[in-house]
Specification:
6-stranded mixed β-sheet; 14% strand; alpha/beta; single chain; 312 residues
């Protein structure tokens, strides 16, 4: 008999790192907001500013680049490399994995993989929802993006319900295009019957589950076996990252009353857009967490992340 409490605890322990290194560079503007008449929650974050008054783009890029191995490399390989270090005291195996992770990224400033990496950080370190599969590790061509969703994470509740979170990230210059394309991309995964893309991703989860504990893996795989009644306890959810350029970039920790009102008005407009897109793409009743992150310059952040990875 499986002890559900133990399984839930083991699953929570899969989430890696702490949120401090991310949230310190991406402080929240006010609390999370539930969009009226939907099941969508929006969290708005702005880049922090350093003591010289400059947005901390380089520091965020560093935090993102440092997470590439967690994002790209399956836990089993990381654990073997760690065991090799414990045995030999040599970091060679760990360094090799780090290089492998960096080399998996498309070396293009138009690549969306930086957004996928940031979404991974927010999911694991902030929301504490572990990654179910490392899709980057399945790439056969480093110059081609991974097909399907931008990430698959999950949380396991005490009542035995497995919440699966399909991820989608869009980092665009235009906020309106970013919101529209984000919901257009994620909606097919959240429909009651799903489509071929969701089914394909579920097959990948079943065949490449990123969990090393044998008993926990066996328990989780029951949720993806169509002959098992546990499939009735799987709930589909969405998690989105929408980043875009924002003029007159504010330092939210140093706003006067007028500045606070201006930012609040802008945030309100973004919330309204989210509500419209949720309705347009017919995902009103689906649980969706959306990170709304206005940036000084999306292209600049992409370039900084690539440089940190040694691509430039």
């Amino acid at each position: 008999m499986v002890d559900e409490a133990v399984v839930v605890e083991q699953f929570l322990e899969l989430a890696r790192g702490t949120g401090n290194s991310v949230i310190d560079f991406l402080p929240a503007f006010q609390a999370a907001v539930a969009i009226p008449e939907t099941s969508t929650v929006v969290r708005t974050h702005f880049l922090a500013h350093d003591a010289n008054g400059a947005p901390a783009s380089e520091l965020l890029a560093g935090a993102m680049a440092s997470a590439t191995m967690d994002f790209c490399i399956p836990r089993s390989k990381i654990e073997r490399a760690h065991a090799e270090y414990e045995k030999t005291r040599s970091t060679a195996a760990i360094v090799s994995l780090h290089e492998q992770a960096r080399n998996l990224f498309v070396k293009s400033e138009s690549s969306g993989e930086g957004g996928e990496l940031l979404l991974f950080l927010l999911m694991e370190r902030v929301l504490q929802r572990p990654q179910l599969i490392s899709k980057m590790a399945l790439k056969t061509n480093t110059e081609v993006h991974v097909h399907g969703s931008d990430g698959i994470h999950a949380s396991l509740a005490d009542d035995g319900v497995l919440d699966v979170y399909w991820g989608e990230s869009k980092l665009y210059k235009s906020s309106s295009e970013a919101f529209r394309d984000c919901f257009e991309s994620i909606a097919p995964y959240l429909q009651p019957d799903g489509d071929a893309r969701r089914k394909q991703d579920l097959l990948l989860v079943r065949d490449h589950l990123n969990v090393t504990q044998i008993e926990l893996a066996a328990h989780l795989l029951e949720y993806f076996d169509e002959t098992n009644p546990k499939t009735l306890k799987v709930r589909w959810n969405g998690v989105c990252l929408v980043g875009f350029d924002h003029d007159k970039y504010p330092n939210i920790t140093d706003l006067d009353e007028t500045g606070q009102q201006e930012v609040s008005k802008a945030v309100g407009r973004w919330h309204k857009t989210v509500g419209n897109r949720v309705e347009e793409f017919e995902v009103v009743g689906v649980n969706i967490d959306l990170f709304c992150i206005p940036m000084p310059d999306v292209a600049d952040l992409r370039a900084r992340v690539l440089k940190r990875m040694g691509a430039k």
